[in-house]
Design brief:
This protein has about 350 residues and is α/β, with parallel strands linked by helices. The protein is built from 9 helices and 7 strands. The protein binds nicotinamide-adenine-dinucleotide and magnesium ion. Pfam families: adh_short_C2 (PF13561).
């Protein structure tokens, strides 16, 4: 490395540290590295790299799986930061419940949170047990507690039980990541059955309400609620109308609830991803053509990998973001957002 390259890398790393973003959180696909002890800071080891060249680009191989898809069976397997995310104690002692924490974006948040020092409960569907066990192993390897609570979020009573069990087993709760979602592409409005509409609404909207309602009485001041929305909230794809409506609801909820619960010292924020390479897309979330060309239309020319979102979830949960509430953080590969 030349001296210029080496000093600009030091500047970048310094900038990230000042900005509160863990340097390791931006690494992608590198060789496995030993994790620091929980709470310890890690030495940064990120080389400067062109973001367009990092991670796979379309076209992607044709593939589909029955819903809910497993990420271990995807080609390529999504990168959720398994070998790259390094923590620096930003969430030491925190306790998080993450829905959809088995795979994709929720899995990236779970890995990052554990490596930042938090204990984690994840929820997922029983069919996703293999993905969930992978995540639990990674959480435990980071020296943190992993609690696995499978179950269907379309059931209000289960949502209440989920929060209660997470709180009991973690010894409290101060981060809720409402991230699970259902997305099923249809070419025409006429093809969206009432059954599908119901599943999309219940999973993406009702569960968000039920989980927040159940959690709020128990969240101490300083807690954070984070909801995963989508760029579809305002720029809906023509193929996922029902899903897009739920994502708009996610953002209205974030902005309204933030005003209400700031009075309890609780912050509420949203994350609005563009195209990310996750099981949601191969389990019916995209048309065949859409999947093959996934991410092509972004200025970056490729989809994001969940690992590239992890630091946003950490940032929104961390105590250092104490003035951040009612915000939606876009991560869209270059489409200005929101
Ligand atoms: P993913 O498939 O890895 O995660 C979705 C999870 O939702 C599943 O793992 C599953 O556990 C959970 N889930 C679905 N129905 C459920 C139910 N009835 N009960 C319990 N759990 C259920 O995919 P992902 O892309 O990481 O999705 C995470 C979030 O990101 C979602 O809110 C999604 O809308 C959002 N998002 C994804 C993209 C993308 O391109 N992948 C873009 C914008 C927003
Ligand atoms: Mg999954």
């Amino acid at each position: 490395m030349t001296q210029d390259a080496s000093s600009s890398r030091r500047d970048l790393v310094r900038g990230l540290a000042v900005g509160g973003l863990a340097a390791g959180s931006l690494a992608g696909g590198g060789p496995a590295a030993a994790q620091p002890a929980p709470g310890a800071s890690a030495s940064p080891s990120l080389p400067l790299a062109d973001p367009r060249e990092r991670f796979p680009r379309p076209p992607f191989p044709a593939q589909s799986q029955p819903w809910p898809a497993l990420q271990s069976r995807m080609t390529p397997v999504p990168d959720c930061g398994e070998t790259s995310y390094r923590g620096s104690g930003r969430l030491a002692g925190r306790r998080a419940l993450i829905t959809g924490g088995d795979s994709g974006i929720g899995r990236a948040a779970a890995i990052a949170y554990a490596r930042e020092g938090a204990d984690i409960a994840i929820n997922y569907l029983p069919a996703e047990q293999p993905d969930a066990e992978d995540v639990a192993k990674l959480i435990r390897e980071a020296g943190r507690k992993a609690v696995l609570i499978p179950g269907d979020l379309r059931d209000e009573a289960f949502c209440a039980r989920l929060v209660e069990q997470a709180r009991d087993q973690l010894g409290g709760l101060d981060i809720l990541v409402s991230n699970a979602a259902y997305q099923h592409a249809q070419h025409a409005l006429a093809d969206i059955s009432t059954e599908q509409l119901d599943q999309t609404m219940k999973t993406n909207v009702y569960a968000m309400f039920w989980l927040a309602k159940a959690a709020l009485p128990h969240l101490p001041p300083g807690s954070a609620i984070i909801v995963t929305s989508s760029v579809n909230a305002d720029r809906p794809s023509e193929f996922i109308l029902d899903y897009a409506c739920t994502k708009a609801a996610n953002e209205a909820f974030v902005r309204g609830l933030a005003k209400q619960v700031v009075k309890q010292g609780i912050r509420v924020n949203g994350v609005a991803p563009g195209p990310f390479w996750t099981p949601l897309q191969v389990g019916g979330g995209q048309t065949e053509q859409g999947l093959r060309q996934f991410g092509t239309t972004t200025p970056m020319g490729r989809p994001g990998q969940p690992a590239e979102l992890a630091s946003v979830y950490v940032e929104l949960a961390a105590a250092s973001s104490s003035y951040t509430t009612g915000q939606i953080y876009g991560q869209t590969g270059g489409v200005g957002w929101p």
